[in-house]
Design a protein that fits this description.
The chain has 424 residues and is α/β, with parallel strands linked by helices. The protein contains 15 helices and 11 strands. It has a single domain (5-366), classed as TIM Barrel (Alpha-Beta Barrel). Helix 5 (144-153) links the parallel strand 4 and strand 5. The chain starts with 9 loop residues before the first helix and ends in a 19-residue tail after the last helix. The relative contact order is 0.12. Bound molecules: S-adenosylmethionine and iron/sulfur cluster (2 copies).
């Protein structure tokens, strides 16, 4: 005879309540385990790691509900480009941010309905508990703070990705009251270079003012840096600067030539520069006081395993479930200003629209669309399970960074499978 939960009467209710009560500690324990494993993998020194781990926000806010860590950090999470409008005009911008809004951006009513969808998905247990408001420049959207407040009331951990220029003290205080994590883009410690990349004199001063206001007022903040051929030597000093101010993490983006970046050939990283970038990230992660997440650079995880001499296929397969490298179809949902759903900011393959469909169906479609790894050599590469290659980079003809960081005589370009034997 099949026993239905209702037949168990009070017992079923007690079991459900116990399950609910245990779900938070179990999730937190899982997140703590994940981050501990990450630290070991990356060779993070014990003292700086413990200092970082002792900060509760790292578990509750940045790691909210995380089951995996990869490109773009914890998964699952949702990133929403709230508008294409922007006060800057960066040479590399994948979103082609500028003075104009994108055609058909979500209205306030549609935006509210979308935020509600994310809240409901998070509550249902299968969705993300983290919502990132990005852009364009999200501070150009007049209803932004109302939407953020709605997300916070719904229990989501919220982050705001901004270029920092409009981030003054009154706004920082409001964001702090809402417990919003602030992510600020900084591309150089040299003012002229940042301004050149960002397309506006004074952009550097604005970003620094925004960052230092957040630090002074005690906001939970982090830095975004885009590594290009123009600013590679600035990446380390930016991380050091953020660490001195108390940033909890750094996202180091490999420049991906998409959007307006398609026209920015001078920013492309060559194979030697990619190898150097991997070294800078690995070094700052080992010794720094904040977590460093490589974006569009899943080869970082493969490199970490190679550094540790780990080549056991079964272990690597198991690790790949927690550290999948590329997050396309593996927990990241990227929503464009008009509601179109992409796998990530750099892969313009639309699988549907939040105006017409629920997030569950859309995430399933993302999973199906990106089930196969980007790298044609992933199956033969010992570290394929923790990398998979970057769909966007390989699609844009960029080389595999691992081929250049290692001991191959000649840099390996995407698709040159004969170089596979050189991996180990
Ligand atoms: C599109 S911006 C939106 C938030 C905000 N306007 C800012 O600039 O920080 C988000 C992040 O993506 C980075 N980014 C933009 N285009 C990129 C590209 N082609 N490759 C790598 N990163 C890029 C930006 O520099 C920024 O750090
Ligand atoms: S990267 Fe950010 S600041 Fe720069 S143009 Fe794009 S949206 Fe604007
Ligand atoms: S396609 Fe590239 S940038 Fe996008 S999630 Fe995968 S590794 Fe990251």
């Amino acid at each position: 005879m099949r026993v239905r939960p209702a037949d168990l009467g009070p017992l079923a209710g007690a079991a459900r309540r116990a399950g609910q009560a245990l779900s938070t500690p179990i999730t937190l324990a899982r997140q703590a385990g994940l981050i501990g494993a990450y630290a070991r993998l990356a060779g993070w020194r014990t003292a700086p790691f413990l200092r970082w781990a002792a900060r509760w926000d790292n578990l509750f806010q940045a790691g909210a509900g995380a089951t995996r860590i990869g490109c773009f950090g914890p998964a699952p999470h949702v990133v929403w480009e709230v508008t294409q409008r922007c006060n800057l005009r960066c040479a590399h911008c994948h979103a082609s941010g500028g003075p104009q809004a994108a055609p058909d951006e979500l209205t306030t009513a549609e935006a509210r309905a979308f935020v509600d969808q994310v809240v409901q998905a998070g509550r249902a247990g299968w969705g993300a508990r983290i919502l990132v408001f990005s852009g364009g420049e999200p501070l150009m959207r007049p209803d932004l703070l109302d939407l953020i407040a709605q997300a916070r009331r719904g229990g989501l951990a919220v982050f705001l990705a901004t270029n920092g220029v409009l981030l003054d003290e009154p706004l920082a205080r409001r964001l702090k009251a809402l417990r919003v994590g602030v992510v600020i883009g900084l591309d150089a410690m040299t003012p002229d270079l940042h301004d050149e990349i960002r397309g506006l004199p004074g952009a550097w001063e604005g970003a620094i003012r925004g960052i230092e206001t957040c630090a002074r007022l005690g906001l939970y903040f982090h830095l975004n840096v885009v590594a290009t051929a123009r600013n590679l030597d600035e990446v380390g000093p930016i991380i050091d600067y953020g660490n001195r101010l108390g940033a909890y993490s750094h996202f180091v983006y490999r420049f991906v030539p998409v959007g307006r970046g398609l026209e920015a050939d001078a920013l492309r990283l060559d194979p030697t520069q990619l190898g150097r970038l991997l070294e800078i990230i690995a070094d700052r992660q080992r010794h720094g006081t904040a977590i460093v997440i490589p974006v569009a650079l899943p080869e970082f995880w493969a490199r970490a395993l190679r550094e540790r001499g780990m080549g056991d296929a079964r272990r690597i397969e198991a690790l790949g479930r927690s550290f999948p490298g590329c997050q396309a179809g593996r927990g990241l949902t990227y929503v464009k200003p008009d509601g179109a759903v992409w796998a990530c900011p750099f892969t313009p393959a639309e699988v549907g629209n939040v105006r017409r469909e629920g997030l569950e169906a859309l995430s399933r479609r993302l999973e199906e669309a990106f089930a196969a790894p980007a790298c044609p050599d992933a199956a033969g590469c010992p570290w394929g399970a923790v990398c998979g290659g970057c769909h966007a980079c390989l699609g844009a003809g960029e080389p595999c960074a691992l081929g250049v960081a290692g001991d191959t005589a000649a840099p390996r370009m995407a698709g040159e499978s004969e170089a596979r034997k050189d991996y180990g």
